[in-house]
Amino acid sequence: MKKNVFLKVITLLTLGVSLSMCKNPSTPVKEETVVTELPPVNTPEEGLAALKAGNERYVSEHPLFPHSNHKRVEETAPHQNPFAAVVGCSDSRVPVELIFDQGVGDIFVIRTAGNNVNCDLVMGSVDYAIEHLGVKVLLVLGHGSCGGVTGAISEEEEGGNVGKLLGTIRQDVTEYVGKPDSLDVAIQKHAHIQVERILSYPHVAEKVKKGKLIVKQAYYDVKTGKVTIN
Questions:
Q1: C-beta atoms surrounding 64 within 10 Å
Q2: In this predicted model, what pLDDT tens digit does every residue of 55-107 receive, in sequence order?
Q3: How many CB atoms are closer than 10 A to CB 46?
Q4: pLDDT of 171 over the 90 cut
Q5: How do 84-88 and 107-111 pair as beta strands?
Q6: Residue 77 to residue 43: CA distance in whole angstroms
Q7: Residue 104 contacts residue 80 (beta carbons within 8 Å)
Q8: Which CATH class is domain 41-229?
Q9: pLDDT band at residue 38 using 50, 70 and 90 as cut-offs
Q10: What is the dihedral of CA 116, 66, 62, 218, to 10 degrees?
């Protein structure tokens, strides 16, 4: 008897679910729209706003992952037209496209340990982004816990190519050597000096003056994912 009652209950529940699903068979099912494209960037101001908005999406865990499909790969295969360039650190915790929620062909990324541009090779890459690719925004992106700046302000000497790298960074933050508690200040000061160095080139300063380019320093918080642009 109990078994029969149980079977009837199950049957009624199943029937109810079926009826609710078939109640309006003509009503179309609403599909979720996945955004993979963003409005084009036409000005330096729009470019800066796009980077800020992308980081806000990243921090709030609502990324759109734009320009990440195969269509975008095919579109950019013949040529590239990034709207921004970022001089960032090689640190694995700072994936530039991800933290700005951008995709294939959006950002020309120049990465070196310590994001220092006091070198013809790095500055050559910056010039390529500005002169040949016509980027509208250039950011020098420092970040928390930067190993390059940490080593540069350390009083310990390191040999080899790493020592040469740290020595180059140390030239820009000499007042913080032996002051590990000033690491964040040193990181931001270092990024600021790179911006000044880039702007010291007349061809770059001219583009900024004409409103064709914005050059800014930025700081990435490795604990929160937030980018602060100054």
A1: 18
A2: 999 999 999 999 999 999 999 999 999 999 999 999 999 999 999 999 999 99
A3: 15
A4: yes
A5: parallel
A6: 24
A7: no
A8: alpha beta
A9: confident
A10: 20
